[in-house]
Amino acid sequence: MILTDEFRVERVASHQLHDLRRRVLRNDDAALYHPDARDDEVTSIHFGGLLGDRLVVSASFFPSSPPMNPTLVTYQLRYMATDFDVQGRGYGALVLAVAEDELRTLGAQQIWANGRDTALGFYRAVGWLSVEGSEHLSPETQLPHTVIFKRLDDDAQF
């Protein structure tokens, strides 16, 4: 799907996202980055935001049993990353919008994530809600995170 003359969002293979994930989410430390065991499962969905031929945004979604609204068809967002030099341009929001539309067509009613606290403003701006009392340190990064979610179904009740 073309979104601007230069930026587009596409479904991509998980291996195409590994470099961006490592650089942005693991401080470019190869020792801290390990591909997700679910990356290559047939039910996993990966989106890349491309500026020309350069991958600048990554987002992966995995079917999941959520910590909230457990009866809903839910996917977990992981490894949302936007390259440092293009943050704040709206590319991450465009990737999420495309992903949400596609997940809705697959029957998803909700998405959730362990959002980095430093990114909560971004997620709130695109309609995500925080789960009160869910603040925690990520076991992978030791950075503060909060459980966040977004309802995708039309009859969402908050």
Write the layout of secondary structure elements.
Layout lengths: L6 E5 L6 H8 L19 E7 L2 E10 L10 E9 L8 H15 L4 E7 L3 H6 L3 E2 L5 E2 L6 E8 L7
Parallel strand pairs: 4-5
Antiparallel strand pairs: 1-2, 2-3, 3-4, 5-8, 6-8, 7-8
Q: Approximately how much beta-strand content do the residues carry?
A: 25-35%
The CATH superfamily title: Gcn5-related N-acetyltransferase (GNAT)
**Helix-strand string:** EHEEEHEHEEE
Largest sheet, in brief, is: 8 strands, mixed
Gap between N and C termini, in Å?
Answer: 31 Å
Number of domain units: 1
Number of DSSP-assigned strands: 8
Alpha plus pi helix count:
3
Query: Roughly how much helix do the residues carry, as a percent range?
Result: 10-25%
CATH architecture: 3-Layer(aba) Sandwich
* Rg calc: 15 Å
| Overall pLDDT confidence | 93
CATH C-level class? Alpha Beta
Alpha-beta content class: alpha+beta
| Oligomer designation | single chain
Describe the structure.
The chain is an alpha+beta fold. It has one domain: Gcn5-related N-acetyltransferase (GNAT) (Aminopeptidase), CATH 3.40.630. It is built from 3 helices and 8 strands. Strands 1, 2, 3, 4, 5, 6, 7 and 8 form an 8-stranded mixed β-sheet that branches.
